[in-house]
Specification:
The chain is an all-alpha fold. The chain is built from 22 helices and four strands. α6 runs antiparallel to α20, α9 packs antiparallel against α17 and α18 runs antiparallel to α19.
Length: 531
């Protein structure tokens, strides 16, 4: 007997599963508020070099002081990183006569002055992470995703070793601790370290939430459950835009996005451990207790109750079956990440799914962290990018059940790359067209992300599912860590970042055609089910 047969008897999608999915959606909302926080935490407002001895220019307006002190770009805006070594008073007579002698132009010597009309403070303004220090600003996101990458390895192994629920609770507690320490950072080094550790903690949440819910749901409702859970990521996306709009000071913004983890910790009390994991690890009594609770909550009144034990006879008779299932899963045997590459079919799945995850994350975060590149207000861009994800998920719900997981995954990622590439060709003045193409690309990107979570959780067997999710998440976070650094390539060629995102998405999307189809296929329990 397979676990799906037990689910059909106790209710594969009833009140029990709905309660679990709803509770697990709470931490899911919180994830994008941290994963995409860099857009607002490290936002760089317009700035120019601080001008010393401004009291000497009491007879000049602010605009005139800037005119004689700061070089101008060809479009008439003042440069952000350079200043004149001495005032150029002749520019008051004709501002178009910009000096051609570069010897009188120097880098900022006295710090910077920032426009605080949009942000009260960000880490850029706090520690002057601009101009020569711009790389450190982008590196803040990379540090976070390096933490997520390490967390994927750690929690992927630990959740298969010690259980899903315990590791999810540990992840949430650590996320609260390190999130609050990030908000209290007094130096850039402290912020970099605490954000990295926050990434480690939140990686566990990202990794465990979906499989824990999916392992309680029957085959028919697996896709619906995966899509439903992912919709709450989009809700978190939109909430981030609203929270960032209301909280313009970076310390309090970190507090605001970390606080909701406390609610998730409290609600996790009502979530049971995965019965699949318990059976696979020989913990039959605990699995039986949770299955009994599931049957009662789902109103399976047709179970007669034994006078000797307050246990439904149907489940009581299945205790031997549970023990047999546990024996078949060899609870004494331990699995590791190396197990993902030992057998030929698993090896192919692991290599191909790793490439797909890298492409999905690399292109998704490349688009998500370029809010100002499409002609919209950054808060509006964040909100619209969140809204467009919901219809994208609805469409994928239909497509993955009609044309299958493999085709949906491949074409969603390929079309993401084509939309990014199209914006390289479309001229900058066509702002509306560029915005429409970007929003379409964001929709395809989210569709690819939604599918890859569902698809991967179905590719790996129960005994290796969290190891598989940990490995693919590790590769994905490498993509997420590299994505913000690619923006620095615009100094080589302005369109090079977009061309890079486009090429990676199209190539990795093509790899998805090599994966097996999992539509209407039972979740594999052991490696023998895969091979």
């Amino acid at each position: 007997m397979k676990f799906e047969d037990l689910l059909l008897e106790i209710g594969g999608f009833g009140r029990f599963q709905i309660l679990i999915l709803f509770i697990l959606c709470l931490p899911r909302i919180n994830l994008p508020m941290h994963f995409l926080l860099h857009n607002f935490l490290a936002a760089t407002p317009s700035h120019h070099c601080a001008i010393p001895h401004q009291e000497e220019f009491v007879n000049l307006t602010t605009e005139e002081v800037l005119l004689i002190s700061i070089p101008q770009e060809p479009d008439g805006t003042f440069r952000s990183c350079e200043m004149f070594s001495r005032p150029q008073f002749h520019l008051l007579l004709n501002s178009s006569l910009q000096p051609e002698n570069d010897s009188i132009i120097q880098h900022c010597q006295h710090g910077w002055v920032y426009d605080h009309s949009q942000f009260t403070s960000t880490i850029s303004t706090q520690w002057d992470l601009v101009c020569e220090q711009r790389g450190l600003n982008q590196a803040t996101a990379t540090f976070f995703f390096i933490g997520v990458t390490m967390g994927a390895v750690v929690f992927g192994y630990l959740s298969d070793r010690f259980g899903r629920k315990a590791m999810l609770l540990l992840s949430l507690v650590c996320a609260v601790v390190f999130g609050m320490l990030s908000a209290a950072s007094v130096s850039y080094s402290m912020l970099a370290i605490t954000r990295t550790l926050t990434g480690v903690a939140l990686s566990g949440v990202s990794l465990i939430v979906l499989p824990l819910g999916m392992e309680w749901v029957d085959i028919q409702h697996r896709t619906f459950s995966g899509i439903l859970t992912s919709i709450f990521w989009s809700i978190g996306n939109m909430l981030l835009a609203m929270v960032a709009y209301l909280v313009r000071e970076w310390h309090w913004l970190l507090v605001a996005v970390t606080g909701p983890c406390l609610l998730s910790i409290v609600c996790l009390w009502w979530v049971p451990e995965s019965a699949r994991w318990l059976i696979a690890n020989g913990k039959v009594k605990q699995a039986h207790r949770h299955l009994l609770r599931c049957a009662r909550m789902n109103g399976r009144k047709d179970f007669a109750v034994s006078p000797e034990e307050d246990v439904p006879l149907t489940i009581y008779a299945q205790r031997i079956v549970l023990q047999r299932m546990a024996t078949e899963k060899k609870p004494g045997r331990s699995y590791s990440y190396i197990s993902l590459f030992r057998t030929p079919v698993l090896r192919k799945i692991s290599l191909c799914s790793g490439a797909v995850w890298f492409g999905v994350a690399f292109s998704y975060y490349g688009m998500s962290m370029n809010l100002t590149g499409f002609g919209l207000n950054m808060y509006l861009s964040q909100f619209v990018f969140g809204i467009i994800e919901i219809p994208a998920k609805m469409i994928m719900y239909v497509l993955v059940n009609r044309i299958g997981r493999r085709q949906s995954q491949a074409w969603a990622l390929i079309l993401t790359g084509l939309c990014i590439g199209a914006n390289v060709i479309i001229p900058k003045p066509f702002t509306s067209l560029r915005s429409v193409v970007a929003i379409m690309g964001k929709g395809f990107s989210e569709a690819a992300f939604t599918t890859v979570f569902l698809y991967t959780s179905e590719l790996y067997p129960t005994v290796l599912r969290q190891n598989g999710m940990g490995y693919t998440s590790f590769v994905a976070r490498l993509g997420g860590a590299l994505a913000p650094l690619v923006f620095l390539l615009d100094e080589v060629w302005r369109s090079l970042p977009e061309v890079t995102y486009c090429g990676v998405a199209v190539c990795c999307g093509s790899v998805a055609f090599l994966l097996p189809e999992t539509l209407n296929v039972r979740l594999p329990e052991g490696i023998e089910d895969i091979e």
